[in-house]
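Quick start: read one record
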Amino acid sequence: MQSSRLVFPVLLLLAPASLLAGLAAGSADLPLDQIFHALLAGPADTLASDIVWQLRLPRLLSAFACGGLLALAGVLLQVLLRNPLAEPYILGVSGGASVGALTAMALGAGVGLVNFGAFGGALASVALLLALGVGGGQWNAQRLLLTGVVLAAGYGAVVSLLLSLTPGDSLRGMVFWLMGDLSRAEHPLAALGILIAVLGAARWQAGALDVLALGELKAKSLGVAVEPLQGGLFLLASLCAAAAVTEGGTIGFVGLIVPHFLRLLGVAGHRRLLSASVLAGGSFLVLADTLARTVAAPQQLPVGALTALLGVPTLLFLLSERRRAAG
């Protein structure tokens, strides 16, 4: 498809453009010349520099990292589970992170301990999922999926109990975290580092992913070590989800919508799909967070609600167009 060749160049332009739009827009709009001057001059004792370096740039980079991590996890899980509806939160990783983060919030912990609780809860959920879903060392994607769904339901019940027992003064922050909140994101380097490392590892196995997407038997017949590959995909996808949830709370739909969007545009082959998903997911979440900061300024909206409002109609439109073109 000719148009698919244009997708990657467009995404390479969209990523910096979305970051620039995020730097310019806010409760106090900044002209482009002040933004470029602040970026080139580095941190300085000026209002524009403080807005760019202290407030907006860390949050935008965190948004890009979260969006890229969620989209990357979506691609990996859809191959692993051979399920087009698989997304980063389907295995209950976000549920474990939510329990850890909300418990820390209920105890009055600061941002650092909340992030530690979220990441620890996510890792504990991954360990529990491996223990229950991969019994006896025998890998079974369907058993893993079913175990993840059951764990997610259990985490949902615990989250409901925590919300019901929490005083009203802490409840708003907990609800915002559950709906996606990047206002706490101040240190994006760790999330960006994980994103780059996982993308490099996934691209290294891109050929094996193309074969695995055809089916386990086909992959085994072509010499792919399926079980180690599946285990690696699960760990990489779980790491992506854990890092994204720790950085930005529970932000849904990105990992489901972005890979489908790119496939509908004709992006084939995982070497291209993985990189395109990171760029598209990061840009999408940056733009959604910019809207969340500006559409009702000075009040901020939960970015997870906007990702759903923007993403679901877009995906439904693309699916209808594909169905019309096929018919």
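The chain has a mean pLDDT of 87.
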